[in-house]
C-alpha cells in the first residue's frame, strides 16, 4: 500500500479517499495485483490530491464529502472502471461551504450519474448493510423529538438543571407507545423501502396499529408485500398506500425516508406541514433536501406540529447556531450519523472495498447500482 502513485507498475490502481480502519484495511494486505493509493490523513480527502491521484486510476472509493463529478471523471480518464461509494445514497446533496446569508435551495449530486453512465463506469454502493442502524436511529429520533430530548439535554449540559423546578407537565410530550386510554397511533412513511419497513417493524411493539405510506407514483402496487407484512404482524391492522395529503393529515409521526434528488426536493413543504396534526412529529433520516427547512422552522415556531427529529438537514454540514432549525427547542438535530454504528460502518467499508475490487477486475459487483 502506498500514498502516492509514482511507481511505474502497470497494475490497476485504485484510489481510496479515507483510511477504512483496522478491520477493513488488512483485506488489502498481500494484494500484489493492485496498486493501492490511500489518502494519508485522518480527515476529508483533499480535492486537489484526489484529482491528481485519480489520473489513470481504474477505481475510486469515496464517501459523501468527495464528489464524483465531471472534473473527477475527466481527471481519471478512460481507465476508470468503477466508482464505489461507501453509502447507500448516491444522490446526496452536496454544497461547498457557504454563509447562512447565502443559503440557497440549489443542490447537486455527490455522484454525477450522467457522467458515470456516459463513460460506462460502474457504481458500487452499500444498501442493506445499513438498514438496521438507520432504522434504529430513526426510532430514536421519533422518541427524542416527542419527549423533548433536545431541550432537556441542553438544560443539563448548560448547568441550568438546579434552577429547574419540577412541575407536573413540564417537558411533557406526546407518547409514542399506545395506551389503553389513547387512540391508536398512525405512522406515515414518505417512501416505503427497506429502511421504512425496518422502522415499522421496530414500532409495532410500541403498539402502532396503523401504517400509511407513499411511494414513487410510477411504482406498481406492492400488494403481495403488504399482505406478507400484515400477516407477519397480526397487531398491525392497517397498511395502506395513500396520497401525501392523506398521510400528512392522518399520521401521528411522519417519517421521511425517500431517496434524495430533484424529484423529491421539498416533498415536505409549507403546504404539507400545515396539514399535519398539531401533536405530530416529523422525522427525517434520508436527505436534507426532502424537507424545506424554512417551512419546518415556521411550523415549529408557530406550533403547527409538535416537534422534529432530523439526522439530515438541507445544506449540511454548514448548519451553525444561527440556523433557524438549530434555534427551535423542539427540533432535535443529529449530524448525519444514521449508519454510524461500529458494526455497520465495518460492513459498509468492507462492501465498498469489495465493490471497488470487483469493478476493477471486471467482475460482478456485490452491490451495483443498476442505473
Ligand atoms: O446517508 C447515508 C448513506 O446514504 O449511506
TrEMBL record:
The lineage of its organism: Eukaryota, Fungi, Dikarya, Basidiomycota, Agaricomycotina. It comes from Guyanagaster necrorhizus. Residues 14-90, 103-367 form the D-isomer specific 2-hydroxyacid dehydrogenase catalytic domain. It holds the Pfam family 2-Hacid_dh. SUPFAM superfamilies: Formate/glycerate dehydrogenase catalytic domain-like, NAD(P)-binding Rossmann-fold domains. InterPro entries: D-isomer_2-hydroxyacid_DH, D-isomer_2_OHA_DH_cat_dom, D-isomer_DH_NAD-bd, NAD(P)-bd_dom_sf. This is Glyoxylate reductase. One of its GO terms (cellular component) is cytosol. One of its GO terms (molecular function) is hydroxypyruvate reductase [NAD(P)H] activity.
